[in-house]
Amino acid sequence: MAVGNNTQRSYSIIPCFIFVELVIMAGTVLLAYYFECTDTFQVHIQGFFCQDGDLMKPYPGTEEESFITPLVLYCVLAATPTAIIFIGEISMYFIKSTRESLI
């Protein structure tokens, strides 16, 4: 009992999606323009002095004098995800090969 392939394609949905996306994008641009160029939200003007002792944090020193130097930090941050992915892929390879040998 072979059933024929009576699939019908409707291409009218594509212009509908494009129209909806254009309306959403235009609305976003108009809202951004409205909020940027009008006084919808009033700006609260508050002054402070840059050298105010109450607002300043203690100076921690230069990066080279820190406990972990930037070079070591960057190397660890670059190598850690790579090592985790590598270990995960290797372990999945060995787990997959042991599963296939059991079957």
Name the features.
about 0% strand; mainly alpha; 2 helices; about 100 residues
Short account of what is shown:
Helices cover 56% and strands 0% of the residues.
Question: Which helices and strands, and how do they pair?
Answer:
Layout: H1 13-37, H2 70-102
- What is the succession of H and E elements? HH
Number of helices: 2
Q: Report, as a whole number of angstroms, the end-to-end distance.
A: 36 Å
How much beta, percentage-wise?
under 5%
Main sheet makeup: none
* Range of helix content: 55-70%
Contiguous uncertain segments of 5+ residues: none
Q: In angstroms, what is the radius of gyration? A: 30 Å
Shape: flat
Question: Would you tell me the structural class of the helices and strands?
Answer: mainly alpha
Number of individual domains: 2
Mean pLDDT over the residues: 81
* Number of beta strands: 0
Description:
With 103 residues, the protein is mainly α. It folds into 2 domains: 12-43; 63-103. The chain has 2 helices and no strands. The chain is flat, with a radius of gyration of 30 Å.
